[in-house]
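Researcher: Here's a chain I'd like modeled. Treat it as a single chain, no partners, no ligands.
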Amino acid sequence: MSIEARLHIKASIWGETDNRIAVLLAEGETSRSTDGQGLLTSAALAAGLRTVTDLNRLFLPTPAGWRVHLDRADLLTVVWPAKRSLVAAAPIVLPGPWRWAANRTGRVVLLIGTGLRLARTAESRETDITVDLARIAEKGNLVGGAVRFAEVASP
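Model: Modeled as a single isolated chain. Structure tokens:
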């Protein structure tokens, strides 16, 4: 039996001016209805990310075995403590200061959740993503970490 699965990922910037933080939001989606939706979140929690319950009090440790790499062509790789990368050389649209913010701190805030609805079009997502994140965090369906970041040569 096989399950069709997709990973949706979106880059975002939080903060202003010199206090900007590079953020990656991720959500897994399967062809099964609700029983398969939390698989990625559960796997990420088991692999060292921490539950996020309050976005206003965000303290995220740097989890062992997790890394984010970005090459000059904006191809993203997310390495996690498993045999294969979670994301391997996937193209991603980055907000203007995202690369600068990630390089400045050497970390990316990676948030993985269930119910983010990242597959919806970009225009409709900008206004309600914060509401979705807060709702999902309150339910305990959001995990995250301050993941090590590095720019790399093209794969």
